[in-house]
Amino acid sequence: MYKIPIGVDNFHELVTGDYLFCDKTAMIAEFLNKGEKVTLITRPRRWGKTLNMSMLQHFLASEVNGVPTAGLFDDLAIAKLEEGKYLKTHQGKYPVILLSFKDVKADSFQGAYKKIYKLISYLYGTFEYLLNSEKINSVQLNSFHSIIDKSADQQDLEDSLKLLSECLYQHHGQMVYILIDEYDTPLNQAYGNPDYLDSLVGFMRNLFSVCF
């Protein structure tokens, strides 16, 4: 008997953990065929946005958290479309940045800023191999180091997603996918506090606009 995946939002865990789930992998083909540079998905809570983000990450990246993704989709709907074209052409072929703001909940801008800084610094740490890349210049490497050791200023942090995507593109020579989850959580926490909200909106706007 299959288990009910209550609270499971990691695609690898879902597929390999003998859970009952609805196979939505065919939507990956629709996502790839649209070819839009930016896609915004807005749906009610509990619609499955986070799990779908994880599904995309596991499909596009060759590994997630050090675990290879090869084989995860072999028996799923996406593998049966157009004689497996999407699996052969796209699965595991891209560098992927996944960033979730779901735990960025604070009572002030400085509190939110520190949490986001920690989040991005940790994200950079997962791509630390880029520091040894010969395809990244010294200016980029210095900025990369400053994010990891938390010596960067706010402007550097606002440029951080753009810098990371540039470094990944230069190193791998492949288009980079950036997946952002729960982007509105920090803003919802700031609602009702004008000074906090204005500061956070400005910061988040810059963080996303320079990247996208």
> Helical region count?
11
Radius of gyration: 18 Å
Report the order of strands and helices. Answer: HHHEEHHEHHHHEHH
- Share of residues in strands: 5-15%
Give the quaternary arrangement of the chains: single chain
User: Major beta sheet, specifics?
Assistant: 2 strands, antiparallel
Q: What is the residue-averaged pLDDT?
A: 92
Number of domains: 2
Ends distance = 44 Å
How are strands sequenced across the largest beta sheet?
Answer: 1-2
Shape: globular
Number of strands: 4
**Uncertain stretches of 5 or more adjacent residues:** none
**Estimated structural class:** mainly alpha
> What proportion of the residues is helical, as a percent range?
40-55%
Record keyword descriptors for this entry.
two-stranded antiparallel sheet, 212 residues, globular
Give an overview in words:
With 212 residues, the protein is mainly alpha-helical. It folds into two domains: 1-93, no CATH class; 105-173 and 188-212, no CATH class. The protein contains eleven helices and four strands. The protein has helices at 11-16, 26-34, 49-60, 77-80, 85-90, 109-125, 138-148, 154-158, 160-172, 185-190, 194-209, and strands at 63-64, 67-68, 96-100, 177-181. It has a two-stranded antiparallel sheet with strand order 1-2. The protein has a two-stranded parallel sheet with strand order 3-4. A hairpin with a 2-residue loop joins β1 (63-64) and β2. The chain is globular. The mean pLDDT is 92.
